[in-house]
Each structure stands twice: as structure tokens, then as C-alpha cells.
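Thread title: Can someone regenerate the structure for this chain?

I was given the following input by a collaborator and told the matching C-alpha cells would be attached. They weren't. Posting the sequence so someone can regenerate them.
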Amino acid sequence: MVSDFFYPNMGGVESHIYQLSQCLIERGHKVIVVTHAYGNRTGVRYLTNGLKVYYIPMQPFYNQCVLPTVFSTLPLLRNIFLREKISLVHGHSAFSTLAHEAMFHARTMGIKAIFTDHSLFGFADASSIITNKVLKFSLAGINHVICVSHTSKENTVLRGSIKPQMVSVIPNAVDATVFTPDPSQKNPSRRKKITVVVISRLVYRKGTDLLANIIPEICEKYPQVNFIIGGDGPKRLVLEEVREKYQLTERVQMLGAIDHPNVRKILVKGDIFINTSLTEAFCIAIVEAACCGLQVVSTKVGGVPEVLPPDLIQLAEPSSKAVMEALEKAIENHRTGHFVPPAEVHERVKKLYTWQNVARRTEAVYDTIAHEPYIDLSDRLQRYPKQCGAVAGRLFMLIAVINYLLLILVQWWIPDKSIDIARDYRCNHDNQEDNHRTLHQHQT
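Best answer:
Regenerated them for you:
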């Protein structure tokens, strides 16, 4: 598993990689995670069940991603792939430079590669055009693609110019043992109050401006409604200005950035969860909120309509008026008691989304491509002009050839046989004491 986004950074991609890795380990697979350094966290670390994480000595350049260099990561990633006897490289997130480079080097080395797309992109602005061109280059010659929703699949197929047959849809999931309702938080002194919870990155894409527009109107119309807002970002100032302008300091609580282990503690304090995103491939946040028993209100964008059954979510077009009406309906339902009980919502979401199911479906994809023929360099060179265009395609052909020649040079300088093979420490659930002792010896 390779991505710029992993713990200690918190987010949906990070949680997805960790939970999927844990379930694959339980199913008998060997899983290694590769990411960049986070501050002084470099080298090899071990997480739960012996999950091995390589924090390679590269610092983030922009938005938690390393500087794209294409060729400089080859020697180090080759060493890791050979040392760990990797047979498949699974990259995550279209934003991740490290994921794209790892898949590129894997294909050069004859290792099969899979990509999971967690986001939606447009087609008109300059940023999207450049990103989509890079995605076409990255997906040319790849074995398979996984998307988290059917809307995301359509988006990725168009952006990457790939065949729909090579894209599978496997949604995200939630750890239902962690996100549980807590009736004790609904103490008698708060029964007449309605708390609306927002947990999101406070950026334009997450619809923070929409949220800022509806908060004053809701607070004026419903004196019993309060807001709890968790998250940070450049748009936080907009919400703070609204809070000060309308004197809502006591009714709008700004918590700032929240670590993922503390998200459930915030959710159970609320009655309604609102998501105002302008684009979403899946939105794991609304699944976590529903799993905690909250009513969910969300903008009807991207893959959101696919996530929850209609009776568990109020959908609205991404406009202030529509979101306002949906939130008012949720407030009225709460006041009159016309909503699905939290315990029932939890049980339904628990059955809908499990990481074990995600792991089984991902494993099925792995098994499928394991029997597919390897896509050699000549096949890849033929695909670049077809998928990426005449000019960019020839440039990408040159990059692929240079990378192949660089691999030959590195193999001559550091032969495969000179790289030590790492010992494999599998977690033995029947003998935890021996396992922890072995891990301790290896770390020492």
C-alpha cells in the first residue's frame, strides 16, 4: 500500500489504508505500507498486528505530498519492493505523488499495480486538466482501478481514458465497534436543545461558504438549535467572522482540528449531522455520523446519494436555500420524533458497511489480476499515445524508456542478490506473547 496520506496524518484515505491492511493481514496476506516521513517519524515502524510501515526520508512539499521527481524514488522503492518480496503495489489517491511514482516503478520492474481513486475531479479548470493528464499517464499500463462509488467510477473512466471493464466499485466502510450511539450524552438538561454537528476540512470544496450562509438564518429561526463545528482550514476565518457578526459565540462552538479517535466523542453530542460538500466521491463522514445514530443532512453531489438509504439522509442541491430547507426538515423531524431511532440506524449501517467485506472484495480483485499476463514495456509504450494524446503520449513514452534504462543502471550498481530479504513476522492470534516478543527482538 503506497500513499502520501497515512498516519499520523488523519483523514478518509489514511483510515481506508489502515483498516484495509488490517483486514488483509487477518486474511493471511502480507501487507507493507509505504509513505513519506512525518516530522521526525522516519524509518520502519510497526502498527497493530505487525503492520509494517516504511516512512521513507522524504518530507512533504505541498498539501502533504512529496515533490514529484519521477526518477529519484526508484532506487529506494526498488529496494523496498525486493526486500519485502512485493508481488503487487496498490496506490491510493489521485493527489498522492508517491503513489503514482510507486506504481510507475512497479510496472517498470515487472510488478503488477492497482490504483484506488478516492476523489472526484472536474475537466475545465487548469488544475483539473493537468491532474487528469498525469492520471492518464499513471493509469496507462496499470492492471486494475478501484473506485469508492459508481459516480467516482464514471468520473475516473472519463478522466483516465480507460475501459470501464477494468474499474471495480468497492465502497468505503466504517468500524461500527468504534462509532456507536451514546444515549448518556442526551442528559435531561439538553433534551430541549438540538445540536447540529459539522466535522469537515474547512475548505471551499467542502462547502464552508454554504454553511456560513445558513448558520445565521437557522439560529435566528430556531433558538433551540446550536452548532458544533470540528475541523480546520483556510475557510475557518469565514465561519469565525459570521459567528462574531451575528453574536453567536455561545451557540456556534468552533473546535478546530480533531484527531480521528476523538471524532466519535463529538458526534455523539449531536442530533443532526450536516455535510455541505460541493463534490464528494463517497464521504465517509456521513457514514460515521449515521453509525452514531445522528440524522444526516447532505448536499446531493457526487457519490453521496449512493451512500445511505433515503430514510436515513436528507439530500439537497448544493445551494443555500435547498440546504436550509433540508436542515429545517431534519429539525422538525427531531422535534416531532419522526426519525429512525439511533440504535436502529446503527444496526443498519453496521450491516451495510464492514471492512471485512471491503477486504474480501479487494482480495477478489487481487486474485483476478494475479492470473492476468504482465503488461511489458512495449505494450505500455503503445498505450501512451492512445490514452494521453499525440504530444503528451510521446513525452510519457520517453519518460518510461528513461526509467527502464535507469532501472538497468541501478540493477548493475546494486544487484538484486545484494539486497537482504526482510524476515516475515506474521501475527499469531493464538500466541500473542511469542509474537510480541519476536517483534520486540526485530525492532531492537
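The first helix runs from residue 12 to 26.
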